[in-house]
Amino acid sequence: xxxxxxxxxxxxxxxxxxxxxxxxxxxxxxxxxxxxxxxxxxxxxxxxxxxxxxxxxxxxxxxxxxxxxxxxxxxxxxxxxxxxxxxxxxxxxxxxxxxxxxxxxxxxxxxxxxxxxxxxxxxxxxxxxxxxxxxxxxxxxxxxxxxxxxxxxxxxxxxxxxxxxxxxxxxxxxxxxxxxxxxxxxxxxxxxxxxxxxxxxxxxxxxxxxxxxxxxxxxxxxxxxxxxxxxxxxxxxxxxxxxxxxxxxxxxxxxxxxxxxxxxxxxxxxxxxxxxxxxxxxxxxxxxxxxxxxxxxxxxxxxxxxxxxxxxxxxxxxxxxxxxxxxxxxxxxxxxxxxxxxxxxxxxxxxxxxxxxxxxxxxxxxxxxxxxxxxxxxxxxxxxxxxxxxxxxxxxxxxxxxxxxxxxxxxxxxxxxxxxxxxxxxxxxxxxxxxxxxxxxxxxxxxxxxxxxxxxxxxxxxxxx
Amino acid sequence: xxxxxxxxxxxxxxxxxxxxxxxxxxxxxxxxxxxxxxxxxxxxxxxxxxxxxxxxxxxxxxxxxxxxxxxxxxxxxxxxxxxxxxxxxxxxxxxxxxxxxxxxxxxxxxxxxxxxxxxxxxxxxxxxxxxxxxxxxxxxxxxxxxxxxxxxxxxxxxxxxxxxxxxxxxxxxxxxxxxxxxxxxxxxxxxxxxxxxxxxxxxxxxxxxxxxxxxxxxxxxxxxxxxxxxxxxxxxxxxxxxxxxxxxxxxxxxxxxxxxxxxxxxxxxxxxxxxxxxxxxxxxxxxxxxxxxxxxxxxxxxxxxxxxxxxxxxxxxxxxxxxxxxxxxxxxxxxxxxxxxxxxxxxxxxxxxxxxxxxxxxxxxxxxxxxxxxxxxxxxxxxxxxxxxxxxxxxxxxxxxxxxxxxxxxxxxxxxxxxxxxxxxxxxxxxxxxxxxxxxxxxxxxxxxxxxxxxxxxxxxxxx
Lengths: 465, 464
What we know:
Radius of gyration of chain B: 22 Å
Mean pLDDT of chain B: 91
Structural class of chain B: alpha/beta
Helix content of chain A: 40-55%
Low-confidence stretches of chain B: 320-339
Oligomer: heterodimer
Structural class of chain A: alpha/beta
Shape of chain B: globular
CATH class of the domain at 2-74 and 193-273 and 357-454 in chain A: Alpha Beta
Number of strands of chain A: 11
Low-confidence stretches of chain A: 321-328
């Protein structure tokens, strides 16, 4: 079992009212950024990562978002570089570098090779397509998103594994003399993991490449469905998928008492939480998702959603496009835009969903004792070899954040490791993903536990900001 | 005075024979890279920099080169990130980020802002056009080099200073929604310094922007000439240039004894040294330099010194000969070409051993020409003094040894510099009235039109 510490490194001092007025984190003007506070935060998050290593986490996971107080890791490789030097044992897991927005993948290959070397082989690079807002921020054509992704990926792997110099003439990238001097420490290349929010194309692509797929807090029934898709693809490719091929990221926060945990846990909804990551028009720019992926999102995302996409909001966008404003009457977000509700009312709406978000396991909040059965249920259902603990957003003090890390290390991690042993869950370092052959015609291993899924609470689709 | 520690972070275990056979560091196949060596070296260099801060250097300078064992800082912002966290006081000076080879300058603006914040305002970003080989490595059109440079520079400054969101529609870069959340710690912008190897356009551009210009071990006479161009441009713009506008980088290696120092000094020539940075066809791809800059390079690069980044008068002459547009008719030049060890090596007429011997034969000349200063603290101080008297640079960078020198010897050099050389250099700086950009802001002294500007260099000192 590989357990990761994760935080979005939020700029927690952003005025909540500005986020609500803007109806999302993305797009809030950078005039609200104070570099002195930013300097403190970056260093506090690095302290937190070191402490997580100390208390027993196997890995520090980083992510990257641009132009957004939701996540200060605009170029997460900066933090990854620092962790390579100031941590000693933990893996540095990047989920992920947004390949389609880079414009210059050779530089990324060089950057990551250096980080892998400095860390003596502790890097796990991961790739993402980038949220829609990253395409807008970096002026990357969303219609070519997957083409950029695929070509940049293939090119970076070639940089790391083909002897230089060689030539690359692709559709989107051209280099006449590829010969980066420094190559990764890990041979033939560092292990690669891919995070996702339920795009079936990504899942199939991961299975084809034997890359573990990490579900980012996705709803359990939909996750189960896609992991079966991975398993079927793996079988077609001639290997048996298992827990070593999967990971899951869960928002979770613990404190010494239930009262304290409940009070601080509200930080997950600060400014509208992940649902307010960006407005739908930024999250799904035209061409970004395939038709199939868009349909699946609309069908399966619970209302809490991820990165600002929910079924209700997709509907909203559709409705807005036909100017059917009558149906928007009851929508707090739209009414806020029209000035019909106050910020205080919008906030009340957001925090009114706190209990429902917990009931649906979108957020797990409590003491170590009370959170463990919920974690166990997820582990039983999804059997992920990699488990990321996504710590709280919002205005929570450094002390409370570090207490959370300490309690995780003291009580939660040891229990999770016991569960994993009991459930036979293996991580990608215990069992090489794709290393177990599959005989055609036989039944593949079961990847999920549907009985456990039945015990899992249903997410409430009416949970709205 | 601002005193900087600098090393190219060479991959010192590279086979010298392979470098000589390749006739350059650039373009040597990465099959010679060993991960254990690379991992050790990156970390040792970071140890060195932390130690340099400890012994009293004011700044750590980094640079960036791609696809070469000469410099492992292919993405120096990786090292800059780490230094931001593991050093406490020293400035982190990037000389420089190669703007024309970036395809997404907004990403660099974000990267550097993050580093400046983590270091709590200790970053000095600098920009370069990138050596010719960087254009080849990164597939950046050399003909647009200066346009890319100028536009990326303007865009990054805008990203740091204009409240977001705003739109940028340039000739080479387009962004519809610029609003990086993280902006630099230092306001209005971090101090910027520009290094160069004598391109007059760059010097004028620096003077126009009031950015200090740092000569990268360039010949003293040519450097003095260009600093006067800076001073004249400054005067036209209405300000008085002074030591705060200039910096100089010098190879200096110090040891306990002269014998040891000579051994370390010779390592500068390992594999052909800077003269073998890249072959001329990689260093000066078509369109990279203006005509004026190319002429100046050919004129001022001293013969036998190896020049900088693989460009020397001899090599430029040779490139011309090699060009089919100018069929070889000058028999004297032809003879020179034939005699060139490098060419003969390429044709298999000279052995690697002969080529190596030719490389190290240049050592006494490099020492007498001050390209290399190697010695005990006592013997190097007068030489540094001569440079300070001649050029009066507010920032002085000490360029550590290249080549197969042990980690211990490198650390000893740093220790001796800290104990004996830096205090002496500071005294000399005080005595000569040399101030850096933090003691007196670059461009802060108005100059009334019609009055004579201050002398920036001392030609008497140079002739001494």
